[in-house]
Amino acid sequence: MNTDNQTLLRVENLVKHFPIYRGVIRRKVGAVRAVDDVSFEIKQGETLGLVGESGCGKTTTGRTILRLYEPTSGHVYFKGQDLAHLKPEEMRKARKDIQIIFQDPYASLNPRMTVREIIGEPMLAFGIASGKEIDDRVAELLDLVSLDHNYASRYPHEFSGGQRQRIGVARALAMKPSFIVCDEPISALDVSIQAQIVNLLEDLQRELNLTYLFIAHDLSMVRHISDRVAVMYLGIIVELANRKDVYVNPLHPYTQALLSSIPVADPQFYEEHQRIVLEGDVPSPANPPSGCRFRTRCPIADEHCAEVQPALREITPGHFVACLKVTPIDDQEEVIN
Amino acid sequence: MTNYIIRRLLLVPVLLAGVTLIIFGMLQLLGPVERSALYVVDFPKNEKQIDAVIKRYGLDDPFFVQYWRWLVGVQRPDTQGNIVRDGGILYGDFGYSRTASQEVIDIIKNRFPNTLDLALWTIFPMLSVGIWMGVKAAVNQNKFFDQAARIYSIIGTSFPTFVFGLLLLMLLYANNQWFLPGKMSDWVSILIYSGEFKQYTHLLSIDALLNLRLDIFWDALRHMIMPIITLSYISWATFVRVTRSSMLETLRMDYVITARSKGLKEADVINKHARPNAMLPVVTMMGGSIVGLLGGVVITETVFNYPGIGKAAADAAAQLDVVTILGLAIFTGLILIISNLVVDILYAFIDPRVRLS
Amino acid sequence: MTNQLLNVRGLETQFNTPEGIVHAVNGVSFSLDEGETLGVVGESGCGKSVTMLSCLKLVPMPPGKIVAGHAFFKGEDMLTMDNDEIRKVRGAQISMIFQDPMTSLNPVMSIGKQMAEPLMLHLGITKEQARNRSIELLEMVGIPQAADRLKDYPHQYSGGMRQRVMIAMALSCMPQILIADEPTTALDVTIQAQIVDLVKRLREELGMAIIWITHDLGVVASIANRVSVMYGGFIIEEAPVKDLYAEPLHPYTIGLLNSLPKINREERQRLYSINGMPPMLFKKPKVCPFAPRCEFVKDHCWQENPVLESYGRDGHRVACWVDVTSGRER
Amino acid sequence: MTEMTTIPTGDNLLLDEAKSDRKIGWLEEFLGPDNYRIVTGLFKTPASIIGFILIFIFILVAILAPIIAPPVGNDPMKIPRDGFSGEPQAPGSPWKKNVPEIPFWYEPLTGNKEWVHLLGTAQGQYDIFYGIVWGTRTAFRTGVIVVIATVLIGVILGSTAAYYGGWVDNLIMRITDIFMTLPYIMMALIFSSVLTPILGRSLLPPMIAMITFGWMGYARIIRSDILSIKERDFVLAAKASGVRSGRILFKHVLPNAIFPTLVLASLGIGDVVLGFAALSFLGIGTEIGYADWGQVLSFARNWITSLNRYWYIVVYPGLTLTLFVMGWNLVGDAMRDVLDPRMRGKS
Fold it and tell me: How far apart are CA D237 and CA D253, in angstroms?
């Protein structure tokens, strides 16, 4: 899908900490380190999949990029602007081009507004259309997401989950953005509806030349839709590579275990494969382990892993891994010698 | 939990300061002559005396200066040259009640035990019966008991206490003198004045039991039963409603189904699993209902002519004796701050999520 | 039929809602043999959970109501049992675990107490014995320092650990059937894998039969011997697990399987998707409930609701008027 | 496993057909689906319908007061007196002095030409019937004004606290806590007795006092509603769409948060009237002889030993007050059921 190799979005050292207030006078005693120094870039027209378990910071990453949460530090360069440091009004204007689709189609639509108002609101906000124009554009958008445009005067509660998610997509498309954060857009939907939405997103990407950050915990769906995939664990990216590299040749032990845990709809598979089952739970992001954050569950960790926090390094071209045990081929030789 | 309790304790001075500020703010609406009752017994009669009082007690000083003086009082040498203190609510001097011709603190000392006597007999039936009815109504949702409880709770919350009290008086006193208004019969008060009757707690009903005088206990009860019913029915009504809705919500919870799936008896499912959880919101409401109770005594004691602090407040208010009534209010506020603290700490003990945090 | 544990016939359950009666289960029949694991698959609202809750009379009544049917457990109809009789079955012979381990444990009761309840009730043992047994059970499901953790409350456990507690509690009286109602849906994939492995291991050790309710065709493939697919309050297909995945016969099952992205497939391909939405069952369907979404739909499908009949290989039953291989009516 | 997931959701052809038949009326259009459900839910139970009927009757009485009980003298709010004797008179006893104009409905209905004290007189020969009829106006006047004022204060403070958060929130909520520590009736009593010498005996002191100590509940509700709405995804979605924060507040947050408060508040009139009557009963408020239910009831305080004879001083005004409060409570109870969060989303 990479028609253009230009970088559209570059995230540099993004950090988002949520302070924890405890004690008698509610002073700050620490922070949930939801996103802890994350860097990646997304090229024009591609889809970057962001996967990880709940609490790994993937949703926070998406929302911090959009400044729905104020970043603690770091930069988000989008078309040359650093979104993280824009003034509020500049940021508001920048939202024209960068949009989000939410996970819960029930919570993300204002129950007191009609479909027309919901989808038309961004146009009103930017004052680019009025009255009849908005109606026409809403109808056009509804057609685009395969909803009957006669539905425009209805309220969200009259729709099913899948239909509501289509309304959410239409709202995101209203200002013709070039970049959309898809924040677990299918995980609240039934299996038979998920495919409809994924197909819709793919069709739209092709027709409108969109760029996606696709956040999900469903690894097989991410594999299906993404060009490149980033795997997050406890607020950091542990592996980032082409879809194929991640799924066929995963290098980080966490990625390997995660892939191995995916349920496969094929009983034959389970007779032929032995799964890697990780022990224990994900530690609290308020108090992550020292050194490598994965070491407490890692099958190959040693003492060294507790001391050094591994950086995300390029192992083979385009394949980044944050693990002390995985070293680039050149370095490996040095280690052996 | 230590943190929680410390936080809760730290709130006490804040509440105290707030309550005293509100009340002192009201006091400031009065003229200096009325306010002088905070410090002196005698009513200043002429201009000269008024000016002297204003000067001595700084009744025209800035607000916070006066507030501080109100809290700690005024030190002055008396005729013998000893240093004495006038006023100062922190020292328990709430001022002088000119309508009752005694110190406000003495009114409290005399009357509060009577109110407490009433309140104790009200709170325990209120909690047990109200909660029992609410749980039973929820378990039998939409059946007869539930409908009856709901109708009761609507009528209960709609019936004004003073109308209810007057009706009780009409039926149980004016008609046949089964129960009596007031505090005690004359022969009991004579007995108390004679000193034959030992007052251990100053709560008449309890003292009667401690003296093993069932006749006096019965007399106390005859006087208290109508106010108790009047104070109770409205709190029952609210407790039934809150317990019922909390219980209904709890009965829909997954862990109730888990409990059933373990094969527990329905009674155990309700008593061991649903009810303890349903009690959490009820406990949070308890603090509020104690506030309501102490408000309720103002009316109830007035209706039944029962000499507690509620009646004292109502009498003072009717005669516009503001210093007295504000002194009583400070005291009531103090009681409520303490009882709310107790309820909050109790809550921490019931809910492990708070206790173990 | 000697080793048949559970035999459900013609079960129908309805819910009274403000909008009208919802026909959640519309005549479901299935059976479960000793030691067997039956997977029940379907989307939300297809009636899979209600079916199992109905068998144990755990559907909240009202608003729920079991209208018809039988649920024979070792020959005895549980639906006609009185409360005391069915209580002896629940927890002791058939036990359940639920989707959300946070809400299915009592938040104000310690884990130890909750564990001890069924033990003392069904096995009639003392508090001390129950405590020791609870420790054994918690160790069996892999909870470290089990003895110390008995006095803890559910909020002090992680999600995966809570589900382990639920499993330990469900298996405490050595039931013959464990009904697992979406037990891994609320969990992360790595934890899900742990739980599935745990249940598999316990199945080997204890030999109980399992009914595993889920919407995830992948999880079922990893654990079930036999699978029932539900739609609109009916079982529409039932087959041994390999047959179902290799040779699905109902258009809905085929659609579901095709709409999943294939993890092992190299090239990117457009996903198959089923049109429309699952039905809202305000009326009991008179015709095939899947007909409005079906690609293979024929006139007959709009006239009559097909019954579940054997077709193809042994034990493969399907409720469809159309032979999907030929595209013609049966 | 939650109960909701077991009930089918989604729609199919069958449902679609059902839906398209359903026209969205102007009321639903105007109120929005959630509020429309609340309003229609109110008219579904027999209890709330009885409540509405009671309220409606009282409104009629208040409007038609001059026809039901024609006033004597210049000030209709002054209860006409039949002499000055202390002893109350039983219902049906004839008017002797200052007989008012006889209303047109009286003779056809009773066949009686002589105007009597329909519900008797209280101490001082104040006519109870007149007091009850005109007292309805007092009840509505105080109830409406106090409710509007308390809601206004509560909403302003509560939404300020929720909107700004931080120390502003902390300050406002601590003040609310302090006000809630004190018993409402006692503080209203105190404050009105402080105000009475300043403002004179009228409706004003108790009303100001009740407003001062009555806003806390609304402030808390609106604050928590706003806080929960603020967290909802659709507010984030609006922000992400570039909607200005003012519009987010007024179009997304407030409309979804404020409606329950407003409805509950309008039903608070019953409680206000109850409190007001209690203050009157305790001798605070209007001058003696003002048409006000609590005032009429307070006459009974002097006759408790002979209430068996003078029952009508208690029963008639007491019943009136109770029915008035019950009307609002019946509707309020239905309201609470409809507003119950468990019912939300079950549209």
Answer: 12
